[in-house]
Amino acid sequence: MDLRRRLLAEWLGTSFLLAVVVGSGIMAERLSGGNVAVALLANSLATGGGLIALILTFGAVSGAHFNPAVTLAAVLRRELGGKDAGLYALVQIIGAFCGVAAAHGMFNEPLFFASQHIRTGPSQWWSEFIATFGLLAVIFGCSRSRPEAVPFAAASYIVAAYWFTSSTSFANPAVTLARAATDTFAGIRPADAPGFIVAQLGGALTATIVFGWLLRDGAQRGEASSEG
Predict the structure, then answer these.
(1) Given phi > 0 = left and psi -120 to 50 = alpha, else beta, which region is 144?
(2) What is the pTM for the complete model shown?
(3) Helices assigned H by DSSP within 32-149
(4) How is residue 119 annotated by DSSP?
(5) Phi/psi-derived region of residue 169, left when phi > 0, alpha when psi is between -120 and 50, beta in every other case
(6) N or C: which terminal CB in the chain sees fewer CB atoms within 10 Å?
(7) Environment class of residue 102 by beta-carbon count within 10 Å: exposed (0-12), middle (13-18) or buried (19+)?
């Protein structure tokens, strides 16, 4: 696909992803009667279902990154050029804010309003490192062994990570920035966003290095075995 089509796919996909995350968070909070566990369950399941649909829809066009951390990994793996990657990240961030605005419009909320939801501290930064490392690990591993399973595996991991991380697994710098502009269930204080983003990029970088070695080593052993 030409670059314009790929960029449009990344913008649309990221927009819909944030509409799902924020919109389902608002709906869940309104219907859960104050039960945070029920609200988180609804939010995580909606996010997982939406992510499967979006990856299946846009994967053949742009690769369905929807995430600057995934795009960074693609650059490091020489699957995407630096210029294209910069444009990918730009439209992902713009799309993320568009998705927040779309969700707010559906629920009669202000277009943007800064979150007051405190999410900070070493445990949450470590959670974001783990969440992003794991997401990239799932993508790398499944892309090698069962590429058709990537949408389902990545979405399943995100649903699980909502629950096993203290940060509820943002695992995406564009998502983090945009969720700072919503004072709803899914929000994060703008002041807390940089710590999340640094941890996410660190997790993506580490996963790229680890799985670059791990999968290449496995492929080399397989080749040696077949030659023998």
Answers:
(1) alpha
(2) 0.93
(3) 36-62, 68-76, 82-106, 122-145
(4) -
(5) left
(6) C
(7) middle
- Calpha distance 177→131 (Å, rounded): 17
For 59-118, write each residue's pLDDT tens digit: 999 999 999 999 999 999 999 999 999 999 999 999 999 999 999 999 999 999 999 999
Residue 78 amino acid letter: R
Phi, psi of 16 (to 5 degrees): -65, -35
Domains of the chain: which residue ranges? 3-227
Could you tell me the two tokens for 166? 């203290």
What are the structure tokens assigned to 156, written together? 């399943």
- From the candidate CATH numbers 1.10.8.60, 3.30.200.20, 1.20.1080.10, 3.40.367.20, the one assigned to the domain spanning 3-227: 1.20.1080.10
Local structure of residue 207 (DSSP, 8 states): H
The CA distances from residue 42 to 148, 153, 159, in Å, are 26, 19, 10
Rounded Cα–Cα distance for residues 219 and 144 (Å): 10
* CB burial of residue 32 (10 Å; 0-12, 13-18, 19+): middle
The token duo for 120 is 């900070």
